[in-house]
Amino acid sequence: PAKTDEPAQTSEKKEKKGLTAAVGRYLSTPSINKAAASYLGKAGEDYLVPGLKSIVKGLYVGVAYCFAAIIFSFLIVWDLPRLAAGTRLMERSRLGDVWGEVAPSIGTFFTLLGKAFEAQTMIALVNTAITSLGMWILDIPGLGFLAVVVFLCSFIPIVGMIISTVPMCLAALTAPHGGLGLVVAVCVMVAIAHAIEAYILNPRIYGFHMNLHPLAVLIVLYLGQHLFGMWGLVMGVPMATYVWRHLIMGVEEDEDPAPAIPTPSAA
């Protein structure tokens, strides 16, 4: 019976290989690529161009805000000793009691926000490395430029993945060896990289920087995105860490949030 099954299995494998090859040849035919390019061109005129205009406008505003933030940050760091001395004068003012109660909490929150930004930077670097490896395997042209786009867009939750995928798909479609099949491969690669980022990198890296369990980080990110959208993804983890550790548990910044249980010494 095993010998009689071998020809059937061999023919089934040949049929699968033949079907895969036929689909590959169909997707790589010039007529299909031309039709796909025409459809994408019309869709680009109807949807992509207005979307790109709004994206460019948003990027312009974002770059302006970032430039202003860099200038203000430089001025603050440049004059930090005088600013620190001025804030210490608040302790001896009429608002000294209020300042002594509020100032440590504000400092703790912005420390957690800085740790969240460090975690997001590390996630962006790892995501860029994974996506660049995928583009290198698929032989996508313009790897350096696309890697920079992926890194910058990694700081934009949800929308950043869509923005960074568009130039990769265009490069795959217009490449000499490209076509609709390569565009599909790029989309699959981006989906895999996004799944690794969302379900593995974010919980572990955020959990390491914020002293939270990866499962708790995953729950906070899900609830934050579901309730508050993009800002929930950006501010959810530092806000949850601050509320749980410093408002509910009363843990100070220099304390260990989960002290180790002492083991009994041997007699």
Strand content: under 5%
Query: Would you tell me the structural class of the helices and strands?
Result: mainly alpha
As residue ranges, the low-confidence spans are: 256-267
CA-to-CA gap between the ends? 68 Å
Range of helix content: over 70%
Order of helices and strands: HHHHHHHHH
Find the count of extended strands (DSSP E, 2+ residues): 0
Computed CA radius of gyration, to the nearest angstrom? 26 Å
Q: How many helical elements?
A: 9
Report the principal-axis shape. elongated
Give the biggest sheet.
none
Q: Average pLDDT across residues?
A: 74
Key terms:
267 residues, mainly alpha, 82% helix, elongated, disordered C terminus
